[in-house]
Specification:
Elements: H1 6-26, E1 35-43, E2 49-57, H2 62-71, H3 73-83, E3 93-98, H4 101-113
Parallel strand pairs: 2-3
Antiparallel strand pairs: 1-2
Length: 114
C-alpha cells in the first residue's frame, strides 16, 4: 500500500473540502437535483496531480455527470486556486473518477442476502 506524506494528506483534505463546497454552492445549478460527494482525493508525491473520486447519486446519471464535470475541470481548478491561494503555491491538476465502492458494497450485500 502506498504511503502518503503529511503534506500530501493535508493538501488532499484541503482539496476535498473545497471541491465539496464548490459542488454544493457554486455548481449547484449545473447539476440540478444530483447528489455529488467527493469521497477521496489522492495527491501525487510531487503535489502536481490530484485524483478526485466522486460518488454520484442517482448512479444511472453518473457517466454523463462525470463527462460534464471533466468539461468543467479548468474552471473548477480556477475556483479552487482563488480559494486556497494563501495555503498552496501551485494548484494540482485535477482528474475526476467515479468512486463505485458504494455500488460494489451494495452488490455484495445483495449477494449475501440471497
Amino acid at each position: 500500500m502506498e504511503k502518503f506524506t503529511t503534506r500530501q494528506n493535508k493538501v488532499s483534505r484541503l482539496i476535498q473540502k473545497e471541491l465539496a463546497e464548490i459542488f454544493i454552492r457554486e455548481l449547484k445549478s449545473e447539476f440540478n437535483g444530483l447528489l455529488i460527494s467527493v469521497t477521496v482525493v489522492r495527491v501525487t508525491a510531487d503535489l502536481s496531480l490530484a485524483r478526485c473520486y466522486l460518488s454520484i447519486y442517482p448512479a444511472e446519471k453518473s457517466a454523463d455527470t462525470l463527462k460534464h464535470i471533466k468539461a468543467l475541470t479548468k474552471p473548477i481548478r480556477g475556483i479552487i486556486g482563488n480559494k486556497v491561494a494563501k495555503q498552496l503555491r501551485i494548484i494540482p491538476e485535477l482528474e475526476f473518477f467515479i468512486d463505485d465502492s458504494l455500488d460494489y458494497l451494495d452488490n455484495i450485500d445483495k449477494l449475501l442476502k440471497s
